[in-house]
Design a protein that fits this description.
Elements lengths: L1 H12 L11 E3 L2 H10 L5 E5 L12 H4 L4 E2 L3 H6 L4 E5 L4 H9 L4 E4 L5 H14 L3 H18 L8 E7 L2 E2 L5 H8 L3 E2 L10 E2 L2 H4 L6 E4 L5 H9 L5 E3 L12 H13 L2
Parallel strand pairs: 1-2, 1-4, 2-3, 4-5, 6-8, 6-10, 10-11
Antiparallel strand pairs: 6-7, 7-9
Helix pairs in contact: 6-7, 7-11
């Protein structure tokens, strides 16, 4: 698989950092990290988000993430690196953004995409900003192929609830929701009054359970309670690493969701 080969090359080749004089790209956004490590030589990445070095938040293999400098994204540590470009989240505190501006840093702020198309547009935006448009096009071509391959075209749409963590379930108008519907599921969240991503306890769905419950944890309080209260409802594991971001995560996420759908 092309993505796997790229990541293996990173592991084998090491991850040299830009020289002490500064330069390179600093990312404080873990979803941006997952794009950068696939489209840039390691030496051009000055730092990535510390979230990418956390098993519960990363979208790249930890062995890859831990070869880069990880930062929390404070103004002081970012400015000290003198990067050519800082890519951060739109949720970055205004005071931090202002500090970047005072230091004369070029910044790119990105939001959370709510659809496959928005995610692909964001990949293109990142790739263009770092001078690697071909890499962005390659990721988007992989996404297009995955969407075409795993799209379910028959009329059957079993209901599914996808828990992000604990009792937090994904609602409509999200990237995860679109991926669920693409492979042939109907997101059951709205059936329980959940129009956006939010908390949905097992006790709420016990009288009218979905056809399947999908969650990242094999063993957690929420998972154990759902298994006890819904003994006849199938439960499938959707790894957390596939939940956190879009972009290059979309193809393996679609593949896993399609496999769960095919198993019903």
């Amino acid at each position: 698989m092309r993505i796997g080969a790229i990541l293996l090359a990173l592991l084998l080749g090491g991850c040299a950092r830009p020289p002490g004089g500064g330069g390179g790209i600093v990312s404080t956004n873990p979803c941006v990290d997952s794009v950068l490590v696939r489209i840039l030589p390691p030496a051009k990445i000055a730092a990535i988000s510390h979230y990418s070095q956390d098993a519960s938040a990363t979208s790249i293999p930890l062995a890859v993430a831990r070869r880069f400098r990880g930062i929390a994204g404070t103004a002081e540590e970012v400015i000290a690196l003198h990067p050519d470009l800082v890519i951060a989240s739109t949720y970055t505190p205004p005071a931090t953004q202002a500090a970047y501006a005072r230091a004369g840093l070029k910044t790119l702020l990105l939001g959370i995409p709510d659809s496959i198309a928005e995610s692909q547009a964001q990949v293109t935006q990142i790739a263009d900003a770092v001078g690697a448009p071909a890499g962005g096009a390659r990721i988007n071509a992989d996404i297009d192929r995955a969407v075409a391959r795993w799209r379910r075209k028959d009329g059957a749409q079993p209901s599914a609830l996808l828990y992000i963590s604990g009792d937090l379930a994904t609602g409509g108008s999200t990237l995860l929701n679109e991926m669920m519907t693409r492979v042939g599921f109907r997101n059951a969240a709205a059936s329980y009054g959940l129009t956006h991503t939010g908390t949905l306890a097992a006790e709420t769905i016990v009288t009218n359970p979905p056809n399947i419950v999908i969650a990242p944890e094999r063993a957690s309080r929420g998972t154990a309670l759902r298994r006890r209260l819904l003994p006849n409802t199938p439960q499938a594991v959707f790894p957390r690493v596939l939940i956190n971001c879009g972009g290059p995560t979309i193809p393996p996420a679609l593949e896993r969701l399609a496999a769960i759908r095919a198993g019903l």
